[in-house]
Amino acid sequence: xxxxxxxxxxxxxxxxxxxxxxxxxxxxxxxxxxxxxxxxxxxxxxxxxxxxxxxxxxxxxxxxxxxxxxxxxxxxxxxxxxxxxxxxxxxxxxxxxxxxxxxxxxxxxxxxxxxxxxxxxxxxxxxxxxxxxxxxxxxxxxxxxxxxxxxxxxxxxxxxxxxxxxxxxxxxxxxxxxxxxxxxxxxxxxxxxxxxxxxxxxxxxxxxxxxxxxxxxxxxxxxxxxxxxxxxxxxxxxxxxxxxxxxxxxxxxxxxxxxxxxxxxxxxxxxxxxxxxxxxxxxxxxxxxxxxxxxxxxxxxxxxxxxxxxxxxxxxxxxxxxxxxxxxxxxxxxxxxxxxxxxxxxxxxxxxxxxxxxxxxxxxxxxxxxxxxxxxxxxxxxxxxxx
Length: 387
Ligand SMILES: C[S@@+](CC[C@H](N)C(=O)[O-])C[C@H]1O[C@@H](n2cnc3c(N)ncnc32)[C@H](O)[C@@H]1O
Fold this sequence. Notes:
This protein has 387 residues and is an alpha/beta fold. It has helices at 3-18, 35-43, 45-52, 76-94, 114-120, 133-138, 203-227, 250-269, 275-279, 290-300, 325-366, 368-374; strands spanning 64-69, 102-108, 146-151, 164-170, 228-240, 303-314, 377-386. The longest helix is centred in the C-terminal third of the chain and has 42 residues, at 325-366.
């Protein structure tokens, strides 16, 4: 393998070992900063349910398997798995069938805080051991499914062939498997000088990000097409953009490409970080357009597209007092730190990372009104079935 090839492997493995949302239950943890994602997911429940209505049901003796990919460590994944299992149960009941046993796989990169997630899981219903599935589902607040964690990258195989009935993945597929090599190579025209994100970047940088997204999503689809049972379905949601121009990354652009970018520039201007150090930090996120996403699904050809749309998710900021600029600033800094803080901490250390997010908070406080009015996330929502 070439040196370039080795570098690619190293950089993929490095990001996979490191990337995670902020674990635990602290102020900047993902568990405490994912209410916006929860809201956006709830607003799309009708689309999820339409996908679940398409799943072909097997005889009740066959266990039913659900997998949430990019589950992270908050309550959102538990809520969604519960919705899926209740909906499928209802479908079995409407047909007058017994309900099958359910298993739910919570999957994310190995650096995900699975401990916090497992502690949030409700206890397994006592009725599952001998009682009927109906009794089990009726037992208040308890879990009616067997749960397991699956560590690994969703851009590769995670499950045995034809073993999963429903794949769900929310707010995760915009995370690239790596920052493209050329974007970090000073000799390349794709070197992202002066920036920490693709938003507003030059054409070569943009094409490198786009190509990485294509490669990654193709790997995801290839793997899932092997793992999904015949008659199974997938519901995928990721950050998206409404512009055809990839250098306009929409809400992600406003967040990472302006305010977060400005906070990095503050550190450089204050002499706390070298400009080169900033330039070689890049957020590995790409918000695709509908067309970007569609082309890759069609090229793979393993899935029938039931629905593919851009959905307005809304603001990523959840605040109690919208007039309180300090609260808005804090919410933005915490929400940003909950998703990319682990990468920043690893790159410049906790102390400088504290300064960076403090500068971000200050800037966001000063732009609170504008942020509340303008910061909107759009999502690509895809409902796919085995072709
Ligand atoms: C914003 S969180 C989404 C969490 C959750 N689905 C929700 O709805 O709140 C994105 C998750 O995607 C995961 N992720 C990113 N790249 C991944 C990859 N290649 N394989 C598996 N998980 C990945 C991250 O570790 C993170 O936990």
